[in-house]
Specification:
With 103 residues, the chain is of the alpha+beta class. It has 3 helices and 2 strands, in the order H-H-E-E-H. The chain has a two-stranded antiparallel sheet. Helix 1 (2-14) crosses helix 3.
Length: 103
Amino acid sequence: MRSISIALLGIALATPAVALDSQPLSKLPSEMTPAEIKANNAGLDRNDPNYITCRKTEVIGSLASKMRVCRTTRMWKEANARGNETTRDMVEGFARSGGTSGN
C-alpha cells in the first residue's frame, strides 16, 4: 500500500502543471522566490484560484531532504483530482482482475 502512495506522489509531482495559459504568472510558482510569492498573494483570498501555496514534500531515497513544491490553488485542486482519478482507476482495475495482484 505504501508503494502505491509513493508512486502516486511521484506521478503527481512529475505531472506538468496545466492551465498555465489562463494564469497571469510570469514563471512557475515553484521557480518563484518567497518574496515573489508574497507579492503575488498580496490582496488575494486563500481560496482565490491564483493564490500560491507552498508545501514541503519528502525526497524519495533521502532521510532528511525536503523539496519545496509551490502551486496555485487551481493547480493543487487539479493535481488532487488527477491523483484521485488515478487511484480510482487502479482500484477498479484491481477489482476487475478478480482481486489478485498477479504474484
